[in-house]
Specification:
By secondary structure, the protein is of the alpha+beta class. It has 8 helices and 9 strands.
């Protein structure tokens, strides 16, 4: 066996100690030099009379205990809006616990801030309260009270419609609405041989094509709201998307019926970019921020411009 010099033995010992130290660090809580983003959501039902009629003068007394946070707390008393609020915070996890923040504290922050604020705004504005105005006020309130770095806030007012604010552009309010279309397509590249197409695309190269129920999420943004407190009129947003995208693609064979795919392979990636091109200059003072297309429940493509 070859003998190491004293210097080599010392380096070897230091290397082993460093390795052991790193392993011990990871056992105790991981690498504390790196930041992570933690996201938590609450679900709740609330209306303008919620604080008094539904759950008592303080808005909480009759709603306790929290027995079904999965379904939403407070739960609906009669017919009431059902909202989902999601907060993302960023920082370095604690060396001992591995926690960035105890999620119970996030729940407490969201419930004690967002619920009374939403009830108050609904009471003041009624049907004139927009999702944009609500998330704007919640962002300001939560940023002030949070002990952690809040990087994003997203509010769903329906399962398919959401509003978001992000730390890097806090003046920009994003609105995402969901659409769908059904279409068939064949994945085939003319410059490739038939054999290569079959090998590469498999069943998706079937001569007669195959179909999908596509789900499309379109996100627009605007830094200054209009006089009604909106980034865009929602019916206008939906009408533009229907005219420019859904009417073009719905119940079509993409290869045969849509000129954009006469020579372009209609992969979900290409479909997403075609939709972007169709919408990119259509929203006036609002700007297109992102297009996401779900081809299946397991697969989506997303494009946010170059």
């Amino acid at each position: 066996m070859q003998k190491r010099s004293g210097r080599a033995r010392l380096c070897h010992m230091k290397a082993n100690q460093t390795s052991a130290g790193l392993e011990d660090t990871h056992r105790r809580g991981g690498d504390q030099t790196r930041s992570v983003v933690l996201t938590r959501e609450i679900r709740f039902s609330i209306d303008r009379d919620w604080a008094t009629a539904a759950h008592g003068e303080d808005g909480f007394a009759r709603a306790h205990p929290i027995s079904n946070s999965w379904g939403g707390w407070p739960s609906a008393v009669g017919i009431a809006p059902y909202l989902v609020l999601q907060i993302s915070v960023e920082g370095k996890p604690d060396a001992t616990t591995g926690y960035l923040v105890n999620i119970q504290l996030l729940d407490q922050l969201l419930r004690q801030t967002a619920l009374p604020a939403t009830a108050k705004l609904l009471r003041q504005s009624g049907v004139n309260l927009t999702g944009e105005l609500l998330i704007q006020q919640l962002w300001l309130a939560l940023k002030e009270k949070a002990e952690w770095s809040v990087v994003a806030l997203q509010l769903w007012t329906t399962p398919h419609l959401s509003y978001a604010i992000k730390k890097d552009q806090p003046e920009m309010i994003e609105v995402t609405q969901t659409f769908e279309f059904s279409a068939s397509h064949r994945l085939h590249v003319a410059s490739m041989s038939d054999e290569d197409n079959r090998k590469y695309f498999g069943k998706c190269n079937n001569v007669n094509g195959h179909g999908h129920n596509y789900r499309v999420e379109v996100t627009i943004g605007r830094p200054e709201l209009d006089e009604a407190g909106r980034a865009i009129s929602l019916p206008e947003f939906e009408a533009i998307t229907k005219r420019c995208v859904i009417d073009l693609l719905d119940h079509k064979h993409l290869n045969a019926d849509v000129p954009e795919f006469a020579e372009l392979n209609p992969s979900v990636e290409n479909i997403t970019m075609v939709i972007w091109d169709k919408l990119s200059d259509q929203f006036g003072t609002a700007t297109l921020r992102k297009v996401r297309v779900w081809e299946t429940a397991k697969t989506y493509a997303e494009y946010a411009g170059d």
